[in-house]
Amino acid sequence: MKFREHKTKSGTLILAGKSAENNEELIKQVQPNEDVFHTAMPGSPFVNIKGKAKFGDRKQAAIFCAKHSQDWRDKKSDVIVHKFKGKNIFKDKKMKTGTFGIKKFKKIKIKKSEIEKLN
Questions:
Q1: Neighbour count for residue 77 (Cβ, 10 Å)
Q2: Among 93, 112, 95, 89, which residue's Cα sits nearest to residue 35?
Q3: For 36, how many CA atoms within 13 A lie in the half-sphere containing its CB?
């Protein structure tokens, strides 16, 4: 498969990048009103909820993002994840592969215990 995939408890599809190049491809397919997630620290997949998020989907996507981040791998503690819409992502020519700018985001704190529970 092209991206990592995860189904939420409600059945919503979540996609996540596997590398800097893969994150580029993932961001290309994000729709303007879809939710996207990335950790506050570098070294995270971009995670995209496909379509309209249902109750609980955003939290599950944020946990999925945190679990696959370098921040979690290196520290095994709480992780801060940014949530934003596809329309708030931009790319400057000077940005390296897999790097994007975000105009507007919300912070979500994902607790260590939540990450450990994710299958």
A1: 10
A2: 89
A3: 29
Note if the pTM is more than 0.90: yes
Residue 52 has a pLDDT of: 95
Helices and strands in the chain, H and E counts: 4, 8
**At a CB cut-off of 8 Å and minimum separation 6, what does 112 contact?**
76, 77, 78
Tens-digit pLDDT profile for residues 57-100:
999 999 999 999 999 999 999 999 999 999 999 999 999 999 99
Q: What are the structure tokens assigned to 19, written together? A: 């590398």
Per-residue CA distances from 119 to 9, 16, 56 (Å): 12, 15, 16
Quick: pLDDT tens for 39-58: 999 999 999 999 999 999 99
State the pLDDT at residue 119: 66
Number of structural domains (the chain) is 1
Q: What is the domain extent for residue 106?
A: 4-117
Beta bridge partners of 14: 6, 49
